[in-house]
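Hey, can you fold this one?
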Amino acid sequence: METVVIIGGGPAGMMAAIAASQNNKVILIEKNEKLGKKLYITGKGRCNITSSKEISEFFEFIPGNPNFLYSALYTFTNEDTMNFFKRLGVNLKVERGDRVFPESDKSSDIINAFYNELNLRKVDIRLNSNVESFITEEDKIVGIELSNNTKVFGDHFVLCTGGLSYPQTGSTGDGFKFAKIMGHKVITPLPALVPIVTIEDWIKELQGLSLKNVELSIKSSSDKVLYKEFGEMLFTHYGISGPIALSASRVINRNSCTKAVINLKPALTQEELDKRIQRDFSKFTNKAFKNSLDELLPQKLIPIIITLSEIEPDKKVHLITKAERKKLVMLLQNLTLSIKGLRPIAEAIITCGGIDVKSIDASTMKSKTMKNLSFAGEIIDIDAYTGGFNLQLALSTGYLAGIKASSNNIK
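Sure. Predicted structure:
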């Protein structure tokens, strides 16, 4: 019986430990006082574990090296994830956007299920154990040394230490340092799924306003559309957040982007929106412009739109010209923000960048330079948009790394 040492007790590490535990002794090393610390805050504490979309559709939502993930995603699919947790007694539900959550809306149910399975499989869980260094001989790892000077020896090692996002959960980039020392190239880690910072002062007045069914476009300095998505977003005191803004950040951190354009009424053509506005104006014909938008826009947004439209607030709506109305239509479908940048990587949901996939065998997750080392999860240069995809990547790569460190399959 061989000993497999898993470093990192997040979703990738826990799944790798479970997958490797068939005919191997497994030691799971975690620097925190508990496993799955980042999972506790995933999906605002509800834990969006995967998406119910067809697995073939997943690749459309993975901007970070999707081709590298074919073996992992088809070896352990989203259906496998759902069946895995159902088998462990966690009832699931599918919400809007095909997002899958525990029925209880509690991430603790997912973590407890992991704990129970790890204990059932007699995985040796070592908490509060911080890896200080790897002990190597030529192209092979023989053990690790912990910060308390304890040494842990093994036959195969799986590095699942995450990226640089949410460092308070333990993701402090340790794995990148170890990988570099062992000859692996690390693609510069950048924030992904992180709020966008904008320049306009009026954005502060919209703080807390959530918009549904809007369309967000990200444009380059040459006005080329680099990203366009429909869904939910949120205004903050520094810019925009929410699902479609977070996903847009992945485009911003790798490109020169200058504008974020919000279409507040994407379901309508310009002509249809103009007719809708005319109907409202007819209804409020003797009212001032500032009192005519209540049925069209959220209250918090109305003063901003009035100011940006440059239509006199007290002007009676029947006196508003066709040209002014046309300008209003354009504004509602092209509310433009100037992009200053992104919030820090510490505030990102995930990290973009990490271990270069060219140094990893995609069919096994094994290192091409260190023969008994594998990688799984966010430490690899892989990332996806919001919707449960990133957690699925962690589980799929963790599972694949685990079964290839052993010889059995847990499906």
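Residues 2-191+353-405 form a domain with the FAD/NAD(P)-binding domain fold (CATH 3.50.50.60). Let me know if you want another pass with a different chain boundary.
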